[in-house]
């Protein structure tokens, strides 16, 4: 394994720099483009935004379900929560895979600890909660379906 001089200073990246290709060896532009590293970086950058967008979309659908008093938007809200959980789980997995790939290429400096932070722990807790919310929405729709169809038949009669 080659030894690299590691510079430990923070740098901010512009939005277009987030989508640049990553290289097989970090910092070595002659090592070739690493597709795995590039796609993992894109996943850990984009999936949280997709999850946030799905959360807002699910809130609007849930509001429509309350206003319309229909079960179809409730099913849609459950499906959106399930997709949201998949995006959160995918972003956590991309983050862990990216860190593992980086640690294979570079060793940590002596004064840096390689621990996951509190936001990572919150994301790990968030994904199962989103799956549970999805299951509860779908279960509530399923249990109220018979009662809803009986009310609908009563209104027609």
Automatic annotation (TrEMBL):
- Asked if the Swiss-Prot or TrEMBL record annotates the protein with the keyword Manganese, the reply is no
Which keywords accompany this UniProt record? Membrane, Transmembrane, Transmembrane helix
Q: Where does this polypeptide localize?
A: Membrane
User: Keyword Cell inner membrane: yes or no?
Assistant: no
Topology in the lipid bilayer is annotated as:
Multi-pass membrane protein
Question: Which stretch is the leader sequence?
Answer: none
Q: Which GO terms describe its cellular component?
A: membrane
Look up the domain of life of the source.
Answer: Eukaryota
**Pfam families tied to this protein:** Claudin_2
Provide the transmembrane region boundaries: 45-68, 75-96, 116-140
What is the predominant subcellular site recorded for this chain? membrane
Q: What is this protein called?
A: Claudin domain-containing protein 1-like
Whichever gene encodes this chain, its name is LOC101377816
């Amino acid at each position: 394994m080659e030894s690299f001089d590691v510079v430990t200073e923070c740098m901010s990246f512009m939005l277009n720099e987030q989508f640049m290709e990553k290289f097989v060896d970090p910092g070595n532009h002659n090592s070739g483009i690493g597709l795995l590293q590039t796609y993992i970086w894109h996943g850990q950058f984009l999936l949280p935004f997709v999850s946030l967008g799905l959360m807002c979309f699910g809130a609007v659908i849930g509001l429509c379900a309350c206003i319309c008093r229909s079960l179809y938007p409730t099913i849609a809200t459950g499906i959106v929560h399930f997709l949201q959980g998949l995006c959160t789980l995918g972003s956590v997995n991309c983050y862990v895979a990216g860190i593992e790939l980086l640690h294979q290429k570079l060793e940590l400096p002596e004064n840096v600890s390689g621990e996951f932070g509190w936001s990572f722990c919150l994301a790990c807790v968030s994904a199962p909660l989103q799956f549970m919310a999805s299951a509860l929405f779908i279960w509530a729709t399923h249990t109220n379906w018979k009662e809803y169809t009986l009310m609908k038949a009563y209104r027609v009669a």
